[in-house]
């Protein structure tokens, strides 16, 4: 990146840190930081535009819909408003905003309306932060934030949810593994993301095996 682009990245970091200063712990600045750093590693391997990837990773959760009455328009609008204050070409602004609009899992039933290598990279990085050790921690943190039960054997996972059901679900946290986390390995876009996801997926399977044994007092 050029020195001018790096300055824009630095200002974007400062903006995101300020905006997410009081965010829920699974969707705070540190989530953004992890996704950003992971996206940079994948971008290098996949030969993606690092400037676009950086901006999109930093702004991808600037206003997550689940914390804004499920309004999907707020995040992209905030990202665009910020980018227009910077000296950035219009095609890059449009590209970054399109990534923010299309990155969310949304129950896994929504098709992307935009495609680019950079979206593939940032979406993979975001999904990697939802699985593995960090993903497990984030899942239970959010479940506690929403006052959900940890596990209830009488409530099975719902694998046929639409977007509205997914977002309004009050099911036990463990169900989320089956409704999202364990599905992500096979939904990665890049070769780099697929390799990283496989190891994190295996860790989650080992965790669940141990969880059920401890639940029954067998370990």
TrEMBL record:
CDD domains reported for this sequence: HDc
Domain HD/PDEase, residue spans: 24-140
Matching InterPro entries: HD/PDEase_dom, HD_domain
Pfam families per the UniProt record, alphabetical: HD (PF01966)
PANTHER family assigned: HD_PDEASE DOMAIN-CONTAINING PROTEIN, SUPERFAMILY HYDROLASE, PUTATIVE (AFU_ORTHOLOGUE AFUA_1G03035)-RELATED
Identification of the protein by name: HD/PDEase domain-containing protein
Source organism (scientific name): Chitinophaga costaii
